Amino acid sequence: MIAAQVGRCFDKHQPDSFRRASAQALTKQAKDIQRAGSRNG
Predict the structure, then answer these.
(1) Which one has a higher pLDDT value, 41 or 24?
(2) What values do phi and psi take at 14, rounded to 5?
(3) Phi and psi dihedrals of 15, rounded to 5?
(4) Which H, E and C letters describe 14-29, residue by residue?
(5) Rounded to an integer, what distance in angstroms lies between the CA atom of residue 31 and that of residue 17?
(6) At a CB cut-off of 8 Å and minimum separation 6, what does 19 contact?
(7) What pLDDT is stored for residue 13 in this prediction?
(8) Does pLDDT of 5 surpass 80?
(9) What is the superkingdom listed in this entry's lineage (predicted)?
(10) Is the distance from CB of 10 to CB of 22 less than 8 angstroms?
């Protein structure tokens, strides 16, 4: 959800390629956080 909000902000200011790379990085980060959260309980 946060990644979607950030992506929307990027929409107004950033070129497509940068936005896409950022979205992929944020998605990976979110998955890592979820994985860590499930591991911690």
Answers:
(1) 24
(2) -115, 150
(3) -70, 160
(4) CCHHHHHHHHHHHHHH
(5) 21
(6) 7, 10, 11
(7) 61
(8) no
(9) Bacteria
(10) yes
Domain of 22 in residue numbering reads as 2-39
| Burial classification of residue 4, based on how many CB atoms lie within 10 Å of its CB (0-12 exposed, 13-18 middle, 19 or more buried) | exposed
| CA-to-CA separations, 6 to 15, 19, 32, 38, 41, in angstroms, rounded | 14, 10, 18, 24, 27
Return the structure tokens found at 36: 């860590």
Total residue length of the chain: 41
Count of domains in the chain?
1
